[in-house]
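Please fill in the sequence for the structure shown.

STRUCTURE ENCODING:
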């Protein structure tokens, strides 16, 4: 059974940092592109980053470029999102998703990130 489990969310002040993790199981993690997607209250999903099988190709949405860093550890079947200089508009449910692009075949339940003073 494919499972994607996010962790690392929380409440942080503007300008702060968080590191999210996505633990994958039930499939060969290194065979798949992986993504981070977020959804703010009352809004649709927003793709924010994608990483290739070995991490050699990385893409970011303009809204997070220069502040967020995606990475993966295939030996640990885990993907990460380092988020720096967080802003209130980054408040959202963050989830990981498997595949090249939407619609994704699997996604996790998400971890909540709240940026507030």
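FILLED IN BY: designer on duty
SEQUENCE:
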């Amino acid at each position: 059974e494919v499972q994607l489990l996010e962790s690392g969310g929380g409440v942080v002040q503007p300008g702060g940092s968080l590191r999210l993790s996505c633990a994958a199981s039930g499939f060969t993690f290194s065979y798949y592109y992986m993504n981070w997607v977020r959804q703010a209250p009352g809004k649709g999903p927003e793709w924010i980053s994608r990483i290739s099988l070995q991490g050699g190709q990385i893409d970011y949405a303009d809204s997070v470029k220069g502040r967020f860093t995606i990475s993966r550890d295939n030996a640990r079947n885990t993907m990460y999102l380092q988020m720096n200089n967080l802003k209130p508009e980054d408040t959202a449910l963050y989830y990981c998703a498997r595949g090249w692009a939407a619609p994704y075949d699997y996604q996790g339940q998400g971890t909540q990130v709240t940026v507030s003073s």
